[in-house]
Design brief:
single chain, 141 residues, alpha+beta, 2 domains, 4 strands
Length: 141
Amino acid sequence: MRSACVLVLLAAVSLAVVVAPAVAKSKPGGNSNAARLCQHGGWKHWVRADQTPFKNSGACVSYAARGGILMEPKSAAQRLCESLGGVFAPGSGNVLWHCTYTWTSAAYDALVNRCFADGGNAFGLVSGNAGGVRMDACWHI
């Protein structure tokens, strides 16, 4: 009986020695590579997944080290387009950006104002129809 208890105790200790390190290693870790991106002023170029900015390097490092996802900030035009239920796309050449959305006069006016605030000097229909789903573009000509 006594040898059986000693054997069970030894088995339990052996199991604890083998399993404990495995459990410690399997804890979800952060992303040290992403945390490094926050250092040396890098925190100014990133935002959280919800687009909120960091106040300092430490806040960014802490967020990334705990597994937070660093994102590039969205432009004001992209945030506006998406807030209207639209799909934003960056432009190229003379086109600054596109927004595909369901037209309303309020949405159109807001996009026009954003276009001019972004340095564009022309805004209008690229495809779709005037009163429904359409793609408009902001140009600098």
